[in-house]
Amino acid sequence: MHTQRVLRGMMCGIVFMVAGCANPGDRIPIDTATSRPGTVVTLKGEQRKLIGTPLEIGKALPSAVLVDAATMKKVDLSGMKGHVLFLSIVPSLDTKVCEAQTHYLGEKGTKLPPDIARITISRDTPFAQKRFASEAKLTALTYLSDYRDASFGRATGLLVEDNMLLARAVIIVDKEGIVRYMQVVPELTHLPDMETAFARASELDR
């Protein structure tokens, strides 16, 4: 058991370095600016290229196959019409910033109208996502995994080229499947402006 804990700690440390997460105890800054999909973000000030087809506000969310961590079934968000979608995209749930972002969505996001779908997307395996949801007691969220071939990252221009993880972002999709709000966090070690995203999602649900 001790060996397992040590190994897990080593793996988390590796993910910290590639996913751009703050040190434990650090106060995490919140960004209000945004980068554009398909351009660049930074990791502790160093540029990281985003690859794939850039997502655009006012256009339909593109088709991409994800895996639902709860059911292991394939999901295509482009076909989920009739509900506002709040998409919280994180590099890895095994990191402090990503954990904080997901807790914010799970705990503060209860202020959203109940029919808004709160969804976390990462390249973690569905098994890791399901374990996180249980341990963090955040099972009210939907967790979708892009682990198979990064199809979501490539379809939105949010795939970080050097580590093949997803950039940190928030995307709001209206009931017709059109992207109405997007923030791609310019610095991977910072949090998105979740309160502004909550307000925009609530407006769309009226």
What is shown here, in short?
28% of the residues lie in helices and 22% in strands.
User: What is the first-to-last residue Cα distance?
Assistant: 51 Å
Spatial ordering of strands, largest sheet: 4-3-7-6-5-9-10
Q: What is the radius of gyration?
A: 16 Å
Percent of residues in beta strands?
A: 15-25%
Give me the count of strands: 10
Helix content: 25-40%
* Overall pLDDT: 90
Order of helices and strands: HEEEEEHEHEHEEEH
Please state the structural category.
Answer: alpha+beta
Largest β-sheet summary:
7 strands, mixed
Q: Per the principal axes of the C-alpha atoms, what is the gross shape?
A: globular
Question: Care to describe what's here?
Answer:
The protein is α+β, with helices and mostly antiparallel strands. It is 28% helix and 22% strand. It is built from 5 helices and 10 strands; from the N terminus they run H-E-E-E-E-E-H-E-H-E-H-E-E-E-H. The chain has a 7-stranded mixed sheet with strand order 4-3-7-6-5-9-10, with helices on one face. It has a 3-stranded antiparallel sheet with strand order 1-2-8. Strand 1 (40-43) and strand 2 (46-51) form a beta hairpin. The radius of gyration is 16 Å and the shape is globular. The N and C termini lie far apart (51 Å). Residues 1-25 have low confidence and may be disordered.
